[in-house]
Amino acid sequence: MPYTYDDQNIFAKILRGEIPNDTVMETEHSLAFNDIQPQAPVHVLVIPKGAFVNYDHFVADASDAEIVDFSRTVQAVIEQLEIAPGADGLGYRLIANSGEAGIQEVPHLHFHILGGRVLGRMLP
Ligand code: 5GP
What we know:
By secondary structure, the chain is of the alpha+beta class. The protein has helices at 10-15, 55-61, 64-80; strands at 23-26, 30-34, 42-48, 92-95, 111-115. The N and C termini lie far apart (32 Å). 23% of the residues are buried.
C-alpha cells in the first residue's frame, strides 16, 4: 500500500530544526524528546528521522539499520530514565497511536513512552 507523508507535520518541523524540542536522546536515525503535554511524570516521544507516517509504513520501507536504531533508542531511553520493570515495582507503557481509528494526531511515526507513576488500566 502506498503511504503519503505530509512534510509539514509538527515532528517533521522538529526534525528540520524549525521548531524547538526538549531532546532526551539523539542517534543517527532516531530522536527522543519530551512530550509538550505530558500525561505522566515520564512522557517521551521517540521518532525515526526518516519520513514514515506510522509503524506499518516504517516496517515496510525503513532500512534494517533504521529499524534496529529505533528499537534500541526506545530501549536506551527506558534505561536512561530508569523505568524498566524490576523487583522495585517500576514499569512503563509503550504506545503507538496509528491512523484515524487509532486517534493518531501527528502523522509521523512516534512511540509514546509513559512512566514514572502507576498508570491507570487502559484495556477492560
Ligand atoms: P498522537 O495523538 O499523534 O499519538 O500524539 C501526538 C503527541 O504529540 C501528543 O501527546 C502531543 O502532546 C504531542 N505534541 C504535539 N505537538 C507537539 C510539539 O510541538 N512538541 C512536542 N514535544 N510534542 C508535541
